[in-house]
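seq:
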Amino acid sequence: MVNFGGPVDEEEDRPVQQSVPLPPPPQDYSQYQQAPPQHSQQTAQGTRIDQPQLPAKSRKGIPIWVWLLVAFFLLIFLLAAGVGAYFLIPRDGFTLRVLNAPSGAKVYVDDIPSGVPQRDGTIIVQGLRTGEARDLRVSEEGYADWKTTVTGQPGKVVDVTVNLTPLQTKTTPSTGGLPAEIDFSGRMVLIPAGEFKMGADDSNPEEAPAHPVTLPDYYIDKYEVTNEQYGTFCNATNHPKPVNPFWDPQYFEKNPRMPVIGVSYSDAQAYAQWANKRLPTEAEWEKAASWSTGATAKHRYPWGDTADKRRSNVESAHPSNIGQFAEGASGYGVQDMAGNAREWVDGTFEAYPGSKASNPQFGQGLKVVRGGDFRAGLPFAKTTSRLGVESGFKTNPGDDKLGRSSLVGLRCANSADDSKLQTVLKPGGN
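struct:
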């Protein structure tokens, strides 16, 4: 007999004759944490009905990836708002314009690098605090630092004209006291007037015979023209920029202090004219590379007669920044005249006077390039080495697909009596 919860008479093993009603089922199942199906269990006392256990209500929250996505967009919004506020909210400050600074000079305000160079050489510093004196320092290699203090009113422009003093202040007495080094669209070195021996009798036939040449005073660029300098020229004149070589697709854009390459003879002339200079003659280039004040014999290499690859950028995979091989400078202090980039000069590839050399390139109107390049060996970097090249030779669009490029760049020169130089040759004008 099924017992529904009443007491049991153990002696007779039968339930007491009384009826106990079942408790009503609960109406609110939320108090239960589980809800397995209702079931019964047979025991020695009879059948017991377990209380039903209902499933807990499902607590479905927002997935974690949704929170991460919301946080990401919130961060982007805050960053955008901050940038917008920086540029849109008016800020009280004044603008500083630094004038007459040498090419490549660095400006520091309160010892913090500052300023943006403009096409005309002016360096502009914006957003300077007002109401207090600001320390201004202008630095450039080869000069003593120029220092002053500046103040300004909100929204105003303050112009400051600097006058850096070269560290090398020596003069050359034999040439009328001309400064040994000047800044004229870049550093230039004086090559004093006088005779030197051009060419060589113990080298390639087109370099012979060695013969005397007399030149007046002139200045030549201490360094090769850089990508940065040539880029300023292109921006100012809308002249086409050089095509990057196949071995460095961003050479021109990413290497401002390396020599410009891949330019034609007419490109080089155009730059020199824009800079109020000219290309050096072949004799001027060779004297600057191979001679020195008081010399009686020329040098096979700019630094001397010893073939030392450590003194120049030759047999390498890439050009270097200008001035990286100071120990390879010529006797006059002109740098990078061996290796790095070949250089256009103002000359036609012809036999020297008295030469017996026979060369099919003579008489073809080819222009001369000097100085070797970073890929060539030292024999091509000798001070007397010369090469005839078509004047239109340059790196052209599509040359990267053919694996070819020009390695020819330039440096400039000026006669010491050129009227354009007189402003910097006057005492205190440098």
